Amino acid sequence: MHTFLTTLLLSGGLAVAAPAAAAADGFASGTTGGVAGPTVAVDTTDELLDAIDTVGPLVIQVSGTIAITSKQGVRPGKTIVGVGANPTITGGGFDFYRSSNVIVRNLTFVDAEDDAINIGQQSHHIWIDHNTFVRPVDGSVDIVRGADFVTVSWNHFAGTDKSMLLGHSDGASSTDVGHLRVTIHHNWFDGSRQRHPRVRFGEPVHVYNNLFEGNELYGVASTMNAGVVVEANTFTAVPHPCYSTSGYADSGPGRLVQRGNVFTGSGGCEAGGAVVEPRTYYAYTLDPVSLVPALVRAGAGAGRT
After folding, report:
1. pLDDT tens-digit profile of 14-66?
2. Which range is the signal sequence, renumbered to this chain (predicted)?
3. What is the pTM of this model?
4. Catalytic residue among 75, 195, 200, 304
5. Residue 181 annotated in active site
6. Measuring CA to CA, which of 54, 134, 204, 273 is 20 to 30 A from 9?
């Protein structure tokens, strides 16, 4: 559950507070990152790459604009947090291969030549919070190959194409069934096209209190017997808020429970089947769906922590 700043913003006559997340919640609960280790400040490519490849816990404070290439591996026990004015990673992204206990916060990822963040190969307890994603060539945040216990919260997907993929292929049941447990909350899918998320096999995937606006292709797709709970989100100008029982593209059908969502100028949410309830794993409190647009616009993205 999140806490709030004391500064209030006015929206539609209502006092709305911008959020300040104090600790990982949802499936990433218990993730502490590098808090047990020292703090290092980085503002060059070599410094950043050395820091994320360091063995042991470390808090990495990123400032300025740092150019990297491809997807660079992040070892366990790291907090990678932007500080100062507009900390930015450009040209590349972060890769998690059998990594764990990592926090990525308050960064803008621009023009990644592949994925901006790829969480794979049994990585677990990863918290992606308060970042902004702009123009990655492939995914903004992909969670694949047996990854587990991940929370993606308060991020701004600004006109991205493939925002979030859970489960990399229809043939990955042996690695992904029983994994890919992901919480996705208070994100702003702002003119982004698809995969918010697209899910194969994962259950439960919990999508709540997000703002979907002008998503050209679709909002959420549950496929290949995935189990997704979609609740208390707002969808505006989204032609297909949800796919599930009909499958999507070449992928077979999934299961999806939807409740308490608001649809404005949008199609219906295709739902069906039973899904394991997220409350089986963690407690959470929903924000009133009427406040979601103002809360998310005020709080999502880099620079809003």
Report:
1. 434 334 457 999 999 999 999 999 999 999 999 999 999 999 999 999 999 99
2. 1-23
3. 0.94
4. 195
5. no
6. 134
